[in-house]
Design a protein that fits this description.
297 residues; alpha+beta; 2 domains; five-stranded antiparallel beta sheet; two-stranded parallel ribbon; 7 strands; globular
Length: 297
């Protein structure tokens, strides 16, 4: 006779197997599921938080594409859709783009940002030699497949500085070459006075203001570089920016061709400057380490 094992619906839904070798059939009556099964081919709807995250991601993507379009496109009244400085604050420094590597005006020169300082050493004021902050930064990205953005800061700063410098006249540049330590307000007054004194001058107050903004940025950066190299005893800093063109295209196959002499913009001595939000300790740690590594190569 063949034995049958019947499990009550209220008991555990697992089936008790027959002992090995036993000639018996096991019939199980399983407990019905408490939750209805989803129909085959019909996925469960996404949860609310998934839909919320997807919605935010779509909005952010749309904003980023729109902001990038406004930033890349030629200036137009459409930019006024974004109020104030919201567009530039969003795009800079991480999403800024430059298309000057393409024709008709590709990049054809190198910028260098050089710094020197007056420090106190052994109770005496000592003037240091020039240090190229650009060379130190470029050593971070040379032969590096994942270059850090810190490797191009001084190059961009030097480019902006020289453009503002070139917009001024000889009279303003002569003033800038003077030493202004402890009297930054006097520098502005002298520059603004040089505009009204010179007849027929094409330099405007806006150009003077634009230059002073670039100088403040440059002096603040030079202060970080100087303190990273020579320590906290820095009393004065000086900035020198240069631009050197590459070999002209028509002479590219001439083995004796040489690069043109660099064009130099030299500022006078200035007092150290620290802008809000600067972290001198972190900057000094990274820059000093790279500076020492470069010197050992």
């Amino acid at each position: 006779m063949t034995d049958h094992l019947v499990i009550d619906a209220g008991s555990d839904s697992s089936t008790t197997p027959a002992e090995p070798g036993a000639d018996s059939a096991v019939t199980a009556v399983t407990k019905p599921r408490s939750e209805p099964l989803q129909r085959s081919g019909t996925p469960a709807p996404p949860r609310r938080w998934v839909r919320a995250v997807a919605f935010v991601a779509v909005l952010f993507t749309a904003w980023h594409v729109f902001a990038s379009f406004l930033w890349i496109a030629p200036p137009s009244p459409l930019r006024e859709v974004v109020p104030g400085k919201a567009l530039s604050s969003y795009m800079l420094p991480f999403f800024g783009q430059s298309w000057s590597v393409f024709a008709p005006e590709p990049i054809n020169g190198d910028y260098h940002f050089n710094v020197r300082a007056v420090i106190v050493e052994g109770g005496e004021r000592v003037e240091t030699g020039w240090v190229s902050a650009t060379d130190v930064e470029l050593s971070m990205i040379r032969y590096n497949l994942t270059p850090p953005r810190a490797g191009i800061q001084s190059s961009e700063l030097a480019s902006d500085f020289k453009k503002a410098w070139d917009a001024l006249g000889d009279q303003q540049r002569a003033i800038l070459a003077e030493r202004y330590v402890g009297n930054a307000d006097q520098l502005r007054a002298d520059l603004e006075g040089s505009i009204t004194e010179g007849e027929g001058s094409s330099v405007t107050a806006d150009q003077v203001d634009a230059y002073l903004q670039q100088e403040q940025r440059s002096v603040a950066y030079a202060t970080q570089v100087a303190r990273a190299i020579w320590g906290p005893s820095v009393e004065e800093v000086q900035v020198r920016v240069s631009r050197q063109n590459i070999i002209p295209f028509g002479q590219r196959h001439n083995p004796e061709a040489k690069r043109p002499e660099p064009k130099i913009s030299l500022d006078g001595w200035r007092e150290p400057r620290v802008n809000p939000g600067q972290n001198e300790d972190n900057f000094a740690r990274v820059f000093r380490e790279q500076y020492e590594r470069m010197r050992q190569q």
